[in-house]
Amino acid sequence: MQAAAFDEFGGPEVITLRILPVPEIADDEVLIKVWSAGVGVWDAYERQGVLVPEGAAFPIVPGSDGAGSVAAVGSQVTDLAVGDVVYVAATTRPKGGFYAEYAAAKAEYVAKLPDGVPVEHAGAMPTDAVTALAGLDTLGLAAGAWLLIFGASGGQGHLAVQLAKRQGLNVIAVASGADGVALVTRLGADVSLDGHGDPGQVLARIREAAPGGVDGILAMAGGKTLDRLTETLSDGGVVAYAHGVQPEPQERPGVSVRAYDGAASPQQLQRLNELIEVAPFQVHVAEIFPLGKVVEAHRRLETSYPGKLLLTIR
Fold this sequence. Notes:
Layout: E1 2-5, E2 16-19, E3 29-39, H1 41-48, E4 65-73, E5 85-89, E6 102-106, E7 110-112, H2 126-139, E8 146-150, H3 155-166, E9 170-175, H4 177-186, E10 191-194, H5 199-209, E11 214-219, H6 224-229, E12 233-242, E13 255-260, H7 266-276, E14 285-290, H8 294-300, E15 308-312
Parallel strand pairs: 8-9, 8-11, 9-10, 11-12, 12-13, 14-15
Antiparallel strand pairs: 1-2, 3-4, 3-6, 3-15, 4-5, 5-7
């Protein structure tokens, strides 16, 4: 099979195309004919040697997110069949990732693609969607509560906007630039604000929308702007931030801070699918690259863009 892989850690240029064997699957695994693969910052960390899956050995095929069709199933797999269209969030993948024509994954990380998700963009969804749901679970807000999402136009943020609305939350989305504001508005945010705008005006708009204070903040980024936004929390409010956010938000009187991370499991993937199926679900792809342009895709990771980046394999 054709795959993009690297034999040493380093910059984008270490990833090259080569021909590798199709991975063999174990009894509890599924072989995926990959149609598309998400390109995320965690792939760059893997390429740099920071986040390398346990058991991985050179040549390493990166790619934590993928979608495609089931090509083969192990003898213990009963809920998936050859031909099923699926998406995969595979945090453990010693046999390689989704920057390849085929990938092996534990069946517990594989879910059938629900109605409402465009199949051509599904590969960019899994990790960010699972992580966004984990963030909402960490906050545990009841329907009708006010949620502020900081970094709302990013890969995780724009999916969190949609999942939060499906849970009955009122969403204030702080996005990046005019394009980001337009995106989160289109996705159903009740209030859409540009985080690059005047901080005083941003705070005033939030207080106008939620005069009693917001009940929780879901943070995909840190810094001075986030520190200012915590001033809008009601007493007893919670800030949930994704692991890796720097600087980490700090607790203060009346405000608690909780870190979260996404973990795929059959139960969590089922919950995610149930929420997705409520209404059309958009995975916003800023740019699509063929597998042969993987180096350019990783260079694009270092720039600013709304939503996600995607590799097409087939």
